[in-house]
Amino acid sequence: MSDIELFEQDLDECSLIEGAVALTCLIFPETDKHWIMLTLDSMFDELEQALVHEQNEKQKFEAFIRHFYHEWTFHGDSDEFFNSKNTRIDSVIKRRKGIPVSLGALLLYFGQRLGFPLEGVTFPSQFIVKVCWHNEPALYVNPFNGEYVSKGILRAWLIGHDGPLATLKPKDLSASDNPTTLGRWLAVIKSALLREDNFTQALKCTDIALSFVPDDPYEIRDRGFIYQQLDCHQMAADDFQYFIDNCPEDPSSEILKLQVNALNDNHVTIH
């Protein structure tokens, strides 16, 4: 069984952070998984000691948030948001900065181990953490800075993301399973790597995504773009043609037809 198949098989049985570590190891083989897990355990021990005197659950949770963002100084990377280091759990732990999904995964890992009623939500504009106290309305935390966000702010985010007619629906705030969250995370990693012209590792992201949905024409189109950058012209042309055949009404199909013609013209047959 391949590493990717093992990764898929274990997704529903592991925590989000464990899935993220496995994903990081697939894309970045140099990742030291042992170091990550040892460090997380050590940090959790420190956290337990810091909160040992807190008796009230809500006060304990507030103390946890303060420790995460002020004592440990985790924060969102506003300067280099799209840096691929912000998507890697090992780098986020070392640098103490990341993006909502990587910071949120850490927040969930520690918070759930402490017994807090936390869930991850893949909100359309970014990952958020839901706090579900018994018999109380849910609260929402922005992992980027540790601040609570109201439904009014969430509506504003949604409008900014989907346009002025967007409305907040219950499904936008429902808990996400690991495959959904990691699928979104994978797309963010791939986008960051493409921005950095790291096409070899971006191709790994595409291979993982296609192992979940083998016939996704948009993922195949993206793979074609990566192949094109790697000078694999025939493979790029084949992927672009697949997209054209399956999404003829998509505006990008007309542009890709020109790309296919150019790639086929460049293809040299070796006899």
TrEMBL record:
Domain Protein SirB1 N-terminal: 38-186
Highest taxon of source: Bacteria
Family in the record: Belongs to the UPF0162 family.
The name this protein goes by in its record: Protein SirB1 N-terminal domain-containing protein
Native source species: Vibrio rumoiensis 1S-45
Lineage of the species this protein comes from: Bacteria, Pseudomonadati, Pseudomonadota, Gammaproteobacteria, Vibrionales
